[in-house]
Amino acid sequence: MRKIKKGDDVVVLSGKDKGKRGSVVRIVNKNYAQIQNVNVQRKHQKPNPSNGTTGGIITVNMPVHLSNVAIFNSSKNKHDRVGFNIDSEGNKTRIFRSTAEKI
Questions:
Q1: Which of 48, 53, 3 is nearest to 24 (CA)?
Q2: Class of 9-77 per CATH?
Q3: pLDDT tens digits, residue range 2-28?
Q4: For the chain, which end, N or C, has fewer CB atoms within 10 Å of the first or last residue's CB respectively?
Q5: DSSP string covering the chain, please?
Q6: Average pLDDT value for residue range 74-102
Q7: How far apart are CA 8 and CA 76, in angstroms?
């Protein structure tokens, strides 16, 4: 089970977007994730008439390394670490480390 999943609210801990909050749009691979409105870069796009795309400069969300983000705990209004809890039936759930409540 991953500590950070698609749809989680996260906070950037380091880099040029330090302190920004956003939700995870997609997990690129085991180390990288795309976060909404974080690490936005401009890209030059060539036109492709067969696909119907026009050329120009577009903005793209680039991936961020997962070591630079932490999950946002809304009850404490700050970032937190993720832990795991296994119940009596053997189900594994994610919890906040500071408050021990389910994510």
A1: 3
A2: mainly beta
A3: 999 999 999 999 999 999 999 999 999
A4: N
A5: --SS-TT-EEEE-SSTTTT-EEEEEEE-SSSEEEETTSSEEEEEE--BTTTTBPPEEEEEEPPEEGGGEEEEETTTTEEE-EEEEE-TT--EEEEETTT--B-
A6: 95
A7: 16
Half-sphere exposure of 79 (CA within 13 A, CB side): 16
Q: What is the pLDDT of residues 21-59, one digit of tens each?
A: 999 999 999 999 999 999 999 999 999 999 988 999 999
pTM, 2 dp? 0.85
Q: Residue 1 above 90 pLDDT?
A: no
Residue 94 has which token pair?
């994610």
Instruction: Tell me the C-alpha distance between 9 and 4, whole Å.
Output: 9
Distance CA 16, CA 11 (A): 13
Q: Where are the domains of the chain?
A: 9-77
Fill in the amino acid letter for 53: T
